[in-house]
Design a protein that fits this description.
The protein is of the alpha/beta class. It contains eleven helices and twelve strands. 38% of the residues lie in helices and 17% in strands.
């Protein structure tokens, strides 16, 4: 449902950054990093309830559905920079209609508001021409890249935090079920903390035109390394186990997915090696062990 943007605070005379996805892991770190540096943040949220915690921290609040171009225009007006995050959709329609609607609204809003610069969260492999779940972000890059604004696409590796879905099963059964294979093959991964802090740094930098920044963690990570990290954090043996390719569709549909093909194509891309970086990525500093300890409740 469309909403209108409203302001709960006024910061005339100060530089401000509008942050979408602020209630999520990456957007939250972007906002926290900017606030810690004394910057002003406008939290773009769908409801006042979602923005309450950020309002309490001194943020300006803009109510806007991500498919509402008018509300987004208000949210992006008068700010120095905008952090754009496409809401994750793991079960999109075959033509990515939901993401296309949001992308169209973002383009219209950014054209109208004309912030000084935009940082857009993208993904490893966004340059790939093969269809997959991540095609949504390829479309985002294509359309935002055509804007007459300075735009940075932050292409992040596979999130280490994806292992959060596996912690409970590993704790109970001692098994890490892996859709990535072979088990000893490492791929680039990164912690969301590093993605958020890097995005905040990029927002504060001046640049011209379009640029791509790729980001990974300190080292590539394999399913075996994930299992080893879980073993250490949980204090019990955890063994990785490949989920056979022929089981994927049945499993995904049992989870409620209606269109599992894009997700399967994405996983194939990582396993076949074409879902990778285009250039030499920057490296974050947060280790896999740190992330897994936090997810396992070990502080």
């Amino acid at each position: 449902m469309a909403t209108n943007a409203v302001w709960t605070a006024s910061f005339q005379g100060f530089e401000m950054y509008a942050i979408t996805g602020i209630t999520g892991q990456v957007g939250g770190v972007v906002a926290q990093t900017l606030l810690a540096r004394g910057d002003t943040v406008r939290a773009v949220v769908r409801s006042a309830a979602k923005g309450a915690a950020w309002q309490a921290r001194g943020c300006d609040i803009a109510l806007a559905d991500m498919a509402d171009a008018d509300a987004l225009t208000h949210a992006f007006t008068g700010v120095q920079g905008v952090f754009v995050l496409l809401p994750p959709n793991f079960d999109p329609s075959a033509d990515f209609a939901e993401s296309r609607a949001i992308i169209a609204a973002l383009v219209k809003a950014l054209q109208a508001a004309r912030p000084a610069r935009v940082v857009c969260l993208s993904t490893v492999g966004a340059h790939a021409t093969q269809p997959s779940l991540l095609t949504q972000l390829s479309l985002l890059e294509q359309h935002l890249g055509a804007l007459p604004l300075p735009v940075t696409f932050l292409r992040a590796a596979w999130f280490m935090e994806n292992v959060a879905w596996d912690v409970a099963y590993a704790r109970t059964h001692g098994i890490l079920e892996s859709y990535l294979s072979p088990l000893g093959r490492a791929i680039p991964m990164v912690a969301t903390a590093d993605v958020g802090t890097t995005a905040a740094e990029l927002l504060r930098e001046p640049w011209e035109g379009k640029r791509v920044v790729e980001l990974c963690g300190p080292e590539p990570v394999s399913p075996q390394m994930l299992a080893d990290a879980l073993s250490h954090a949980l204090g019990r043996s955890v063994a990785p186990q490949v989920v056979a390719r022929e089981e994927w569709e049945t499993r995904f549909r049992a989870q409620g997915m209606r269109h599992p093909t894009p997700r399967m194509q994405m996983l194939d891309g990582f396993n076949d090696g074409w879902m990778t970086f285009e250039g030499a990525p920057r490296r974050g500093t947060t280790t896999l062990a740190e992330v897994v300890r936090t997810l396992a409740g070990c502080h």
